[in-house]
Amino acid sequence: MLRYLLYIGLIIASCNALPKQERRFPDDFLFGTATASYQIEGGWDADGKGENIWDRMTHTKPHVIKDNSNGDIAADSYNNYKRDVEMMRELGLDAYRFSLSWSRILPSGFSNHINEAGVAFYDNYINEMIKYNITPMVTLYHWDLPQKLQDLGGFLNPLFPEWFEDYARVVFEKFGDRVKHWITFNEPREICYEGYGWTTKAPILNVTDIGTYYCAKNLVIGHASAYKAYVNDFKATQNGECGITISVNWFGPLTDSAEDEYAAELRRQAEWGIYANPIFSEDGGFPKEISEVVAKKSLEQGYKKSRMPEFTDEEKKYVQGSSDFFGVNHYTATYISADEYKTEYITPSLLADIDVGSYRPPEWLSSASAWLKLSPNSIYNSLTHLHNKFKNRKFYITENGWSTLPESDLIDEDRITYYRSALNSVLDAIEAGVDVKGYMAWSLMDNFEWMEGYTERFGLYHVNFDDPERTRTPRKSAFVYKEILRTRVIDPNYEPDTLTMWIDEGH
Ligand code: PNW
């Protein structure tokens, strides 16, 4: 007995003597950065590019942008693409996520006329990445709809899914020999809720009662059409994957009461469930709880039928399962309450439909963006929730990042704190069994931050927008990110010994 206890004691002692296992990202984990066409490219009318909804809105209503600016030149990646790829090499990126401008490739939106100069720009960009072993991850649509399609109703036209499929086929055909990771849409919520149901993204339609819901249905059907085109006609020869990116911030209950839990569930459905459920769930279509709420309120408000459309059984089947992965853009979190912290909402609207209160602890670290605070564990909470709800999907974090003010200097300690916290949360999710395949930091460089213009900066690289060359300079966070990528470990104490970038061998 004594000997037995001694053995156990020895085993425990030797376990303690072992160095604690370091938390590492897997070697095949794809580390990258992300950008979007309108935010970085410029060249708004260069070489045959057509007008899109951001060109039209910023040119005709400049006052809707905080600093009256636009993306006419932006970071001028149209002319600086080699420097962009050099920065990717400096950081040692495995992958780079960027988007294609629909109207640069198809100036009117339709596939009868292909703008070869636009195709050549993306060929050059992609070839330059491939040359240095950087995996392109390509978003087909990051908010810059060809204006002509908007004139026809955009996402509210029932023909939208066909237009999108035609565009997708051109893109798969042209670039699919080199691009193996496709994302159809970036953030349906921002497209539909902000652009159609509200006024915080182009085309600022402000159709608060039905805009979001009808856009959502056409968008997911368009997504499914592009996905099926890829699977049926390209996948066998091109061997890639195709998915969608949805913004999933964390919305947890303020207390553990059943009322708060229901309120949080309603808010999650309003934020991302109406886009994710039709694609990833087993029941298909819009989520049940929010559908019931909108149907009931619509009738009370005198509408003949629910303001939220339904999916027919055929449509449900068409859309279900139409994604090889779930792309998650994650930034922050909010607590949800059934009856506290409520505000007056315009009625009828999505927020009035769900009618819940929201709260964010004042002690959470604040960025330069009003909506963005450092919320501990929120990536873990989101990913484990999605993993359980939608049964073991494959995930990429396709965006995550932090904003600072334009005048703040290159020593961006808060951004470093944010990235370390977020990446630890990703490791927590991986350890909990979530299949996370990659992480893209938003953003490679400062860019046109939509309605905020150039007043909020998300870049690992600073961009000087007063300089015609649009000179790019790494912030301290760029060096910290580079070290995490190189070592696959988050060292909380790492300090770069220089702020001059270099390219490691092999890149
Ligand atoms: C994303 N939120 O949008 C976009 O995909 C990027 O183009 C954008 O520059 C970036 O985040 C930073 O804003 C978001 O309210 C907009 O939580 C709003 C939210 C999240 C992401």
When the domains are counted, the total is 1
* Secondary structure category: alpha/beta
Q: Estimate the helix proportion, in percent.
A: 40-55%
What small molecules accompany the polymer chains? 4-nitrophenyl beta-D-glucopyranoside
The major β-sheet equals: 8 strands, parallel, barrel
Count every helix, treating DSSP H or I runs of 4 or more residues as helices: 18
Q: Strand sequence of the main sheet, in spatial order?
A: 1-2-3-4-5-7-10-11
Morphology: globular
Number of strands: 13
Distance between the termini: 60 Å
CATH architecture: Alpha-Beta Barrel
Q: What's the CATH C level?
A: Alpha Beta
Task: Round the mean pLDDT to the nearest integer and report it.
Answer: 96
Ranges where pLDDT stays below 50 over 5 or more residues in a row are 1-18
Q: Within the CATH hierarchy, at the fold level, what is the topology? A: TIM Barrel
Under CATH, the homologous superfamily reads Glycosidases
Strand content: 5-15%
**CA-atom Rg in angstroms:** 23 Å
What would your notes on this structure say?
There is one protein chain. The chain has 507 residues and is an alpha/beta fold. The protein has a single domain (24-504), classed as TIM Barrel (Alpha-Beta Barrel). 41% of the residues lie in helices and 13% in strands. The chain has an eight-stranded parallel barrel with strand order 1-2-3-4-5-7-10-11, surrounded by five helices. The protein has a three-stranded mixed β-sheet with strand order 6-8-9. β10 (394-399), α17 and β11 (435-442) form a beta-alpha-beta unit. α8 runs parallel beside α10. Bound molecules: 4-nitrophenyl beta-D-glucopyranoside. 4-nitrophenyl beta-D-glucopyranoside (PNW) is lined by residues 36, 39, 186-187, 190, 247, 249, 329, 331-332, 371, 399, 442, 449, 458.
